[in-house]
Amino acid sequence: MLRDQDGLCAICRVAPAVHVDHDHETGAVRALLCFNCNGGLGQFRDDPDVLRAAADYVAFHTLSQRVVALAAAAGLGPVRTVRLGEPPVGSHRRPGARGTSTRGIGRSSGARRREQAGEADG
């Protein structure tokens, strides 16, 4: 197996293959891996969905950083990355919040301000 893999990890194909990887349910040997790749599989519980999510996460943030760098190089000023679920820049709304707050007593924030200012509801 080591010869078939040219002495390299079956995943990264860069580092020396020093660990025998196996399926934890069946015990079947899968391939030879380097220290980092073997540990990574263990940390992600050998779950392909979690591994794909991790790969997507890294790809998204790498691309996001490149976009910010390109914008800066083009002189577009400070640009920040957008995170899913974030309100737009300048918005004071929290994700999932409604347009006005009723704070559990049935009055909107505008009604509270008018009441505090001594104005009657119309």
UniProtKB/TrEMBL annotation:
Residues 97-109 have a biased composition (Low complexity). InterPro entries: Endonuclease_7, Endonuclease_7_sf, His-Me_finger_sf. It comes from the Bacteria. Keywords: Endonuclease, Hydrolase, Nuclease. The keyword Nuclease applies. Residues 81-122 are annotated as: Disordered. One of its GO terms (molecular function) is endonuclease activity. Residues 112-122 have a biased composition (Basic and acidic residues). Pfam families: Endonuclease_7. This is Recombination endonuclease VII.
